[in-house]
Amino acid sequence: MTKKTVWLINEGENLPGDDNNPRLQRMGLLAYEVSKLDGVEVVWWQSTFNHYQKKFRCHEDKTVQLKDNLKLIMLHSYGYNKNVCLRRLAHEWKTAYRFYKQAEHEPLPDVMVTAMPTIAQAHYVVKFGRKHGIPVLVDLRDLNPDVFVSPFRGLMRQCVKIGIKPLQWMLGNALKHADGLIGTTEPYLSWGLSYAKRPKGDNDRVFFVSYSDSGVPTKLNDEAKWGKYLGYEGIVCCYFGQFGRLMDFDTVIDAAELCQKNGVKALFLLCGEGELLEHCRGQVKERGLSNVELPGWVNKTDIADIGFVADAGLMAYQNDENFNMQMPNKFSEYLSLQLAILLQPTGVMEKVIADHQCGVRYDNAQNLYEAVKSLAEDREKLELYKKNSRTVFEKYFSVEKIYKEYGEYIIKNAKK
């Protein structure tokens, strides 16, 4: 078998060796799964900047050999302090351009996979692929730049629509010249194909955002930290991730207040960091909520422990088009931990939990309160939802199954 070299290019994910032992995400998990295939060399391109902690991993380009056949190349760029700012755009474009220039100094691959976002990255990877005759697959993860429009109304909305026209043109051009599109869901793939202005072809596929299967937790790793939650009489609802503008914690806190006022035994563990964390702390303190705890950032060992003590996972995203069309990492993560799903967005995730009876969708705080109350009082239903969550994960969302298939698809598209 002829050896194949695969390049995976993305921006903004956790990396092995980052502080606090974070969980790997889509490209990182894919990199390790592809590296398990026979006769494959993997080069994973990323940035020196840690998106989640807003700090540099190092201050110059760096190459790390993660395995004998898996190499990580980190490119240095500007960095930024906020998720939404002009400096972030400058960082993304510089990182993408630096890839385009630096890639000339590496042995050419047989196939490349680039994540979108960023648009800059998709543009430069496709450009590099066309220059050297290398197949390029684009992994669609976000409705960028369309999502820039949704926060605005009136005249400002029209201005933003005009402002993103160049980005839309650039994205359409990249997707049109890609050799295949990968959607995290069917709606995402359809969205990408509409930009490419073509029908679905044999090289266009859907691979769900999957999660590494560590099995259902059976004991605590850190009893001193999480043992106090064992044996809680009611229902434990958890969240772990960014406290960013795309989340809706106000609805969760309002529901928690209703639970406390009405004597419903429910505990809300909201874990993570971000721009909304202090707002949430202020709300919890102001309302005197003893049933909401904010432990801060948690690593993958903590997450396993939270999964062991919790019953339900909160998909507390804003109900907008972006999240109605996708299934973020958190969804498969909760399923892997055998947690019932409490879901705010509609769309693809709603269909999964409805078809497989593994959760409840809510519209507002009253809905969420009623769902939590129902599950707290009906342990049999709660256990059924939890059991079904794990079954769905094993069938549709396990990295070892889905990303192995993804890797085989990548190799199939490599240069002959």
Summarize the model shown:
The protein is an alpha/beta fold and 416 residues long. It has helices at residues 26-35, 86-102, 119-132, 154-163, 165-177, 186-196, 223-226, 249-261, 277-287, 300-309, 321-325, 329-336, 348-356, 365-377, 379-397, 399-412; strands spanning 4-9, 40-47, 49-50, 55-56, 62-67, 70-75, 111-116, 136-140, 180-183, 205-206, 235-240, 266-271, 292-296, 312-315, 340-343, 359-361.
Can you describe this structure?
The protein is of the alpha/beta class. The protein has 16 helices and 16 strands. The chain has helices spanning 26-35, 86-102, 119-132, 154-163, 165-177, 186-196, 223-226, 249-261, 277-287, 300-309, 321-325, 329-336, 348-356, 365-377, 379-397, 399-412; strands at 4-9, 40-47, 49-50, 55-56, 62-67, 70-75, 111-116, 136-140, 180-183, 205-206, 235-240, 266-271, 292-296, 312-315, 340-343, 359-361. The longest helix has 19 residues, at 379-397. The N and C termini lie close together (11 Å).
